[in-house]
Write a sequence for this structure.
């Protein structure tokens, strides 16, 4: 029997893992999210392990694996909004809301909130963090 066929052979990776560069705890992200944001994803070999998104704005790491392998920000196709303080950096990838948009029009957050409730968002693949952007809004508006 192949290893892959035996149930329970692969333990679920931890939900949180320490970034090998800035040493902060980061949250798990799916490989599906990574390949939607990676430049040349065909050159990336996914291993059977947990992957994590580094959300520290000062850290160069975009994603890292449980084995300590690192994918830097430069390997990501677009700008990671929460790691970039320029006004045009996207905060909400589903609906194309930039930091400048979010700052100038607080009601955009309500729009995003409503559409998310309606199930019309696509955070898992659109947002490089793989998570809903609504968590990032307050942070962006208060620090921006
Ligand atoms: Zn980091």
């Amino acid at each position: 029997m192949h290893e892959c066929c035996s149930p329970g052979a692969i333990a679920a990776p931890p939900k949180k893992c320490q970034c090998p560069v800035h040493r902060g705890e980061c949250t798990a992200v799916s490989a599906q999210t990574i390949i939607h944001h990676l430049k040349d994803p065909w050159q990336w070999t996914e291993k059977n392990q947990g992957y994590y998104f580094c959300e520290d704005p000062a850290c160069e790491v975009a994603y890292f694996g449980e084995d300590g392998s690192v994918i830097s920000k430069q390997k990501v196709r677009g700008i990671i909004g929460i790691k970039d303080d320029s006004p045009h950096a996207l905060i909400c990838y589903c609906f194309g809301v930039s930091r400048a948009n979010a700052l100038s029009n607080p009601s955009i957050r309500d729009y995003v909130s409503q559409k998310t409730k309606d199930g019309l968002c696509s955070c898992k693949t659109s947002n490089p963090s793989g998570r809903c952007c609504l968590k990032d809004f307050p942070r962006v508006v208060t620090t921006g």
About this structure: The mean pLDDT is 90. The pocket of zinc ion is lined by residues 19, 21-22, 54, 56, 59, 61 (CB under 6 Å).
